[in-house]
Amino acid sequence: MSKGWIGVDLDGTLAHYDKWDDGRIGKPIPKMVARVKDWLSKGHKVKIMTARVAYRNEAQEVLIQDWCEEHIGERLPVTCMKDFSMIELWDDRAIRVEKNTGKII
């Protein structure tokens, strides 16, 4: 078990996403859901990292936790903020940069 937490983006990473649809969450992406379930079974802490909860959008947070309970089997913490305990981030929009160099990997 690792110390810290793994951040997983929702739209386009964990759930299918084409466009904003009044806050509805898309169908689960099986490969990513399986990965999250595996991490959880090994004792890792996983948080959903999404801009949907920016500005304290509690309705979206509840919607996301309900979705997680249905498709992952438990309600996961939801955040839009990184902190020093985040050990990795899985996201469809991220570009990896080598630490302290700015070099794209």
Descriptive report:
The chain is an alpha/beta fold and 105 residues long. The chain has one domain (5-90): HAD superfamily/HAD-like (Rossmann fold, 3-Layer(aba) Sandwich), CATH 3.40.50. Helices cover 25% and strands 16% of the residues. The protein has helices spanning 30-41, 58-71, and strands at 5-9, 45-49, 78-79, 86-90. The protein has a 4-stranded parallel sheet. The protein is globular. The model has no long low-confidence stretch (mean pLDDT 95).
The spatial strand order of the largest sheet comes to 3-2-1-4
CATH superfamily: HAD superfamily/HAD-like
The second-level CATH architecture is 3-Layer(aba) Sandwich
SSE order in H/E notation?
EHEHEE
Rg (C-alpha, Å)? 14 Å
